[in-house]
């Protein structure tokens, strides 16, 4: 009976640690603003298990990420220009 208590305690602690540590890829996707598109791809893949049947969702996610990368590039360029203007 005493062996089940430490196992239960260890299990609960592991779950808590996993909750605190979000996957870096999930963090990146969440920050990009493309999480809904990403989840749509995941749901489609879970349902169909064939990426060819999920091309509309894949393309929407790809477009979203491309737009986000372009915005990020513009932001970095503006910051770079502002930094060099202050010198």
UniProtKB/TrEMBL annotation:
Entry GO CC: mitochondrial intermembrane space
InterPro entries reported in the protein's UniProt record: Coa4-like
One GO term of the biological process aspect: mitochondrial respiratory chain complex IV assembly
Record region (Disordered): 1-26
Gene name for this UniProt entry: LOC101355283
Species name: Trichechus manatus latirostris (Florida manatee)
Protein name: Cytochrome c oxidase assembly factor 4 homolog, mitochondrial
């Amino acid at each position: 009976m005493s062996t089940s208590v430490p196992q239960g305690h260890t299990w609960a602690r592991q779950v808590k640690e996993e909750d605190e540590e979000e996957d870096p890829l999930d963090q990146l996707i969440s920050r990009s603003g493309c999480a809904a598109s990403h989840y749509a791809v995941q749901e489609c893949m879970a349902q169909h298990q064939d990426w060819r049947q999920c091309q509309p969702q894949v393309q929407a996610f790809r477009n979203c990420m491309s737009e986000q990368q372009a915005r990020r590039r513009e932001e970095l360029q503006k910051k770079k220009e502002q930094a060099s203007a202050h010198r």
